């Protein structure tokens, strides 16, 4: 049984497809790596925003409650 030898054109196509697959994989990895982590400063700013809205509406609450609400909102993706 004879082994079929790949032609130069077939080899180029294989290399191109492999390179394209690697580029797609690296793009997907980069997209997930660019997601920003929630920092303490982000939470502090959001808690201040919640506090100001709460006071303006005349609703009672605590700084701890504002902090927890801010943390929950930011981690859920609601900026």
Structure write-up:
This protein is mainly alpha-helical. Helix content is 72%, strand content 0%. It has a domain at 40-75. The chain has 3 helices and no strands. The mean pLDDT is 78.
Topology:
Elements lengths: L7 H26 L6 H18 L5 H13 L4
- Overall geometry comes to rod-shaped
Number of strands: 0
User: Topology as H/E string?
Assistant: HHH
> How far is it from the N-terminal to the C-terminal residue, by CA?
66 Å
**Structural class by SSE content:** mainly alpha
Features:
single chain; 72% helix; 79 residues; 0% strand; rod-shaped
How would you summarize what this structure contains?
This protein is mainly α and about 80 residues long. It contains three helices and no strands.
